[in-house]
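hey m, so remember when u said the tokens were messed up on ur end? i reran from scratch. heres the input so u can diff it against urs
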Amino acid sequence: MRAHDVKEILIDKQTIARRVDSLVDEIIATDQPDHLVVVGILKGSFMFFADLMRSFYRHNAHPHIDFMTLSSYGAGTVSSGTVQIIHDIRENLTDANVLLVDDILDSGRTLAFTKKLMIERGAKTVHSCVLLDKKANRAVEFEADFKGFEIDDLFVVGYGLDYDNLYRELPHIAKVNFQ
């Protein structure tokens, strides 16, 4: 692992909490589906996903939940370009309205792959919600339906995001400064 620090906070925990609540307001106002399946893309989305689910309660919305573990990074800091399913969902998606939840939209490969897969499995609709949108490295044409924050071309950690499986526990988003 390269020498680095994570002292520069880009988005504090209070700002994240307010935006998560407003995202659920947007999701509910836009699409109040009767058979909603929310799929978290692990590992990075786990904190964001949990906070979103708690916020659904305020709207008396009770979605089904499931998780997928996908990999396109390995131990690196740049996407390999190939998406692999490590752990698949078990929920039946026939005629379901699916909301994919991911930590960061970067190259777009993971969410484009997953959206196509959900449609092939019978989902009626597939929307996506990301905590961070980093447009600088988009390799495929894909836009999230719901976005927490847009960020510049930085490597960030915290609130579920990692560098070589470290720093996921941080309650905020911090920039990784490599030396």
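this time it looks ok to me. The helical segments are 13-30, 46-56, 109-120. if urs says something different then somethings off w ur setup not the seq
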